[in-house]
Design brief:
Low-confidence stretches of chain C: 262-274
Number of helices of chain B: 14
CATH superfamily of the largest domain in chain B: MetI-like
Structural class of chain C: alpha/beta
Chains: A mainly alpha (about 290), B mainly alpha (about 350), C alpha/beta (about 325)
Number of strands of chain B: 0
Radius of gyration of chain B: 24 Å
Strand order of the largest sheet of chain C: 6-7-8-3-9-10-12-11
Shape of chain C: globular
Bound molecules: adenosine-5'-diphosphate, magnesium ion
Largest sheet of chain B: none
Radius of gyration of chain C: 20 Å
Distance between the termini of chain B: 9 Å
Mean pLDDT of chain B: 88
Helix content of chain C: 25-40%
Oligomer: heterotrimer
CATH topology of the largest domain in chain B: MetI-like fold
Low-confidence stretches of chain B: none
CATH class of the largest domain in chain B: Mainly Alpha
Order of helices and strands of chain C: EEEHEEHEHHHHEHEHEEHHHEEH
Strand content of chain B: under 5%
Chain lengths: ~290, ~350, ~325
């Protein structure tokens, strides 16, 4: 491992990509995510109906009925179209929540790891206190305070996930800080800011990327949960969690209204978990020999 | 050992103080006027003023915080706006239901998770391993509330084997003794009143426990597998085999005792998480515990109740994590005998 | 050739299927140990000594390992034909093993006494109490001070030397041990402790009357304890002779090289480098049919690339495998 390229080296990412390509589970995850991404981007073209259009005459048609491949819901809206638009929404929610989280977490983690000392102590204390709250509870309470809405749900998920990114990044920044290449840069008189974000961050980011990939899946899951409780997306938004919530009373009569959105969530989250696990095997230094 | 415990407890104090502070400011600094939010748009100025005075919202923030801290230290979490009951009392009534559910879910998840994890490790790279790990991956990717509904759909609606919710059939109403219904059922059994209560309580626990226990089950199975694989590689396992110790004993006695050390930590943390993760499950199964109560308090904008509930659960969570740490050092001779 | 043969390995081949291909870790290996004899198996790291030891007790992980061919006779019966159940009855009772790392070879969450008692319980019907008493007796036998107390200790509470003594006690936990396999038993220990443990091992061997397969790469240890020596290189046996012969009349260039290095210096512990011979052990994956030592040998001939030499005898009990052996040593040059 003496010649192990440092992460900022383009060779490192090329090498990692090669390893990832050989990991079948991770590739399956990537494929699932790519499918969802394509469905999300081309939703208006691919969805057979307007997801909000109610056709009362066609209420609760089962899957495979004419014109509705996956049937319709209790208000006669096309399930397939709602699922496709729901996927678009979930993907956006996942990405925005994790972005919020990453901006907060990376800032705190890099400052704590780079400067150390009392600043590190204060930041880590706050992080520890946040981690004393169970994740789901923290998310729910933040939305409860901010008021139920999709935006607030994303903010809440972003805040609740932040501690883990801050922690992971801090640890890898601390490890990189003492490396020769950083010392060399420092000797050249490079500013702290540039050292932190240009020199160290690209090299310290790998474990955070693993966490973020898993984090997107968890964000999708949490936002569905929040919407299910009425704390996230509001009707008639085609959000998967909300779709499950509003069809609760039909579990006796129309199984597909409840079942299909759940399977969609499961698949999307599975995609990110598969990819995240694969990335962890490759990128996490604790697992590297 | 005693010194270690005391040290850990002292280290906990700043965290607990931080938790109380965070909970206080989360509510106090929330956007908008809490009194207005709680009473709604149509509340009169009179009503608002009364509520503010009641909650101490008319005082400066620093003073509010000091008052809050003082009350919490005396074990006073205030009153619920909705019911006008003391919040500690509300919690006390609901805690047994929540613990009972979290406990059975943890037991279910631990037994199934350990059995599956060990099997996967022993049959590494066979279909047993692959299907267990695929199942575990599905388990952590699944929305729990959806699983709960699917379980109800299958086992309550279609098959009519198990109840859809609640802790006990109404017709079996009895005066609770400990408020842990399984325990009460056993006590009544010994008092010669038959097993009806016990079995009815058990029946009501099955679906919620499976729903709540699925994620921990998956996590425990994964941890057990990787821990077991690590242990089976160790030299002392080879020593035991070379000494002719029977294979089942090598695996289930020698190796498992080592492999379970990290698993026990995971089980403890999961138990702590379940106490709060029960919000969704309790709501779906109409389980009269703390999770459902917090959810209702949120819907009713009963902020003192939410504040009390989250503080209680978080402190509980922190204490359970401490207990897990201590338990770990007690069962691990390498730490215990240092 | 030996009348009261304890162990006889014939033409043993062991390989591992790895991701990079088939590793032939042991090739066509034959060894014999007489009752009560000490055979030292020497060679650099990675040349297949441990694999040989594990093959005898059938503890090679399969897969990826595979015993391809050959036979291993223990007191006349072929261990390779035994069922797993029969094998288990042999392990720890007739054939016991001691490993290199006393730090990791004992189970950290059981007491020393419990681990020794477990071996008794695995091989005979007795009460736990009885097994524990016997464990304490064994700890006394291996000269652990205060054995009653030590039996109740956990491995991490003992020093490295004490742990290795406990391992020896565990290996002796049998009514009639026949063969003890000690795989580099002193490599991980301090030099001063090494001698004590070796002396103990030799003494117990005499007392119990068992055979000993001593794996090591310390020629000093060999000189002190062994009756006979087998030299291995890259999965092959290259020389086999009584101990005096090896030291005074080595015929294989590799044996000579081994004698040239001084592994007793602390820096050399664990990984001896053949400073007297350049290069290192070849990759077992790419090894052909020729002599594996050819690329490092200063006496190599073109034929050495072609095929592995057949056995040559230098006296009744001395065999070597070399196309261009060292000249036999005369009495004068020996001194
Ligand atoms: N479990 C295994 N999987 C693959 N290869 C192995 C395994 N065990 C041993 N080997 C191979 O066998 C060779 C001999 O190993 P070993 O017998 O441990 O050497 P030593 O002489 O140092 O004891 C090594 O080069 C190694 O590549
Ligand atoms: Mg070895």
């Amino acid at each position: 491992m003496d010649t192990k390229p440092i992460p900022a080296d383009p060779g490192f990412w090329a090498d990692s990509w090669h390893q990832l390509k050989r990991n079948r589970a991770a590739m399956a995850g990537l494929l699932i995510i790519a499918c969802f991404a394509l469905l999300a981007i081309f939703a208006p073209l691919l969805a057979p109906h307007n997801p909000l259009e109610q056709v009362i005459a066609a209420r609760m048609s089962p899957p495979l009925s004419s014109g509705h491949l996956l049937g319709t819901d209790d208000l006669g809206r096309d399930m397939l179209s709602r699922l496709i638009y729901g996927g678009r929404l979930s993907l956006i929610i996942g990405i925005i929540s994790v972005s919020i989280s990453l901006i907060l977490g990376i800032s705190l983690g890099i400052v704590a790891g780079y400067f150390g000392g009392w600043l590190d102590k204060v930041i880590m204390r706050v992080i520890d206190i946040m981690l004393a709250f169970p994740y789901i509870l923290l998310t729910i309470v933040i939305v409860a305070i901010l008021g139920p809405s999709l935006m607030n749900a994303m903010v809440a998920i972003g805040i609740s996930q932040m501690p883990r990114y801050a922690r992971v990044l801090r640890a890898s920044v601390m490890a990189e800080r003492e490396q020769d290449y950083v010392m060399a840069e420092r000797a050249l008189g490079t500013s702290n800011f540039e050292l932190m974000f240009r020199t160290i961050l690209p090299n310290a980011l790998a474990p955070t990327i693993v966490q973020a990939t898993l984090g997107v899946g968890e964000a999708i899951l949490s936002s569905a949960g929040l919407s299910f409780l009425g704390l996230g997306a509001q009707p008639p938004t085609p959000e998967w969690g909300l779709m499950i919530a509003s069809s609760k009373q039909f579990i006796t009569s129309a199984w597909w209204i409840v079942t299909l959105p759940g399977i969609a969530i499961l698949l999307a989250v599975l995609g990110f978990n598969l990819l995240g696990d694969g990335l962890r095997d490759i990128l996490d230094p604790r697992l590297r020999d | 050992m005693l010194k270690f415990v005391v040290k850990r407890l002292l280290l906990l104090l700043p965290t607990l103080l931080g938790v109380v502070t965070l909970v206080f400011f989360m509510i106090a600094l929330s956007p908008g006027d809490p009194a207005r939010v709680m009473l709604g748009e149509r509340a009169s100025a009179e009503q608002l003023k009364k509520l503010r005075a009641e909650l101490g919202l008319d005082k400066p923030l620093g003073q509010q915080y000091a008052l809050y801290l003082g009350r919490v230290l005396h074990g006073d979490l205030g009153k619920s706006i909705l019911t006008q009951q003391k919040i500690t009392e509300e919690l006390r009534q609901r805690l047994p239901a929540t613990i009972e559910l979290a406990f059975t879910a943890t037991i279910f998840a631990s037994i199934a998770g350990i059995v599956l994890g060990v099997a996967a490790a022993r049959k590494r790279n066979t279909w047993v391993d692959y299907s267990t790990m695929t199942g575990a991956l599905f388990g952590v990717s699944m929305p729990v509330f959806w699983l709960a509904l699917v379980l109800i759909m299958i086992f309550s609606v279609a098959l009519d084997w198990l109840p859809t919710g609640g802790r006990m059939d109404v017709r079996l109403y009895f005066t609770p003794i400990t408020n842990f219904f399984l325990l009460d059922g056993i006590i009544l059994l010994f008092k010669g009143e038959g097993g009806k209560i016990f079995f009815n309580a058990l029946k009501h626990l099955i679906l919620p426990s499976i729903a709540l226990g699925t994620i921990p089950l998956a996590i425990i199975a994964r941890t057990t597998r990787s821990s077991m694989l690590e242990v089976l590689k160790q030299d002392y396992v080879k020593t035991a085999r070379a000494a002719g110790v029977p294979e089942w004993k090598v695996v289930y006695h020698y190796a498992l005792k080592n492999a379970l050390l990290p698993v026990i930590t995971v089980i403890g943390i999961q138990f702590g998480l379940l106490l709060s993760g029960a919000i969704l499950t309790e709501t779906i199964f109409a389980w009269p515990g703390i999770g459902k109560w917090i959810y209702h308090s949120i819907s009713a904008r009963d902020f003192p109740a939410v504040q009390g509930g989250i503080l209680f659960i978080s402190v509980f969570f922190v204490l359970i994590n401490l207990a897990v740490d201590l338990l770990y050092s007690v069962i691990n001779p390498r730490i215990r005998l240092q | 050739m030996i009348s009261n043969e304890l162990l006889k390995i014939d033409a043993l081949c062991v390989s591992f299927n790895t991701q990079r291909g088939k590793v032939r870790a042991v090739r066509n290996l034959s060894l014999g140990i007489a009752e009560g004899e000490t055979l030292a198996l020497v060679g650099e790291s990675g040349c297949g000594k441990s694999v040989t030891a594990h093959a005898i007790t059938r503890l090679i992980p399969m897969p990826p390992g595979l015993i391809e061919s050959g036979s291993i006779h223990f007191r006349g019966s072929n261990l390779l034909s035994f069922s797993e159940k029969q094998m288990r009855a042999i392990r720890g009772s007739r054939i016991s093993m001691i490993f290199q790392e006393p730090m990791t070879s004992l189970n950290p969450v059981f007491t020393i006494g419990a681990q020794i008692a477990e071996v008794f319980l695995a091989h005979s019907k007795m009460s736990k109490q009885n097994a524990h008493t016997k464990a304490v007796e064994l700890l006394k036998l291996v000269k652990i001070p205060d054995p009653e107390k030590r039996a109740k200790s956990y491995p991490h509470q003992l020093s490295g030397g004490m742990r290795q003594r406990a391992m020896i006690a565990m290996a002796l936990a049998s009514p009639n041990p026949g063969l003890m396999i000690a795989d580099e038993p002193t490599t991980a220990l301090d030099v001063t402790i090494q001698a004590q443990v070796l002396r103990l091992l030799a003494e117990l061997k005499e007392r119990v009357g068992m055979g000993l397969l001593l794996i090591t790469h310390d020629m000093g240890v060999v000189a002190e304890t062994a009756d006979r020596v087998a030299v291995m290189y890259a999965g092959r046996k290259v020389e086999d002779a009584p101990v005096e012969e090896i030291f005074t009349n080595p015929r294989h260039p590799y044996t000579l090289g081994l004698l040239g290095c001084q592994p007793s210096a602390p820096a050399n512990r664990g990984a001896p480098r053949l400073t007297s011979i350049g290069g290192s052990v070849p990759d077992l994956l790419t090894l052909g049919e020729g002599c594996p030592f050819e690329n490092r040998c200063n006496r190599a001939l073109p034929v050495c690339r072609e095929n592995f030499p057949s056995a040559a005898a230098a006296g009744s009990a001395h065999t070597y495998y070399c196309h261009n052996p060292e000249a036999p040593q005369t009495e004068e040059r020996r001194s």
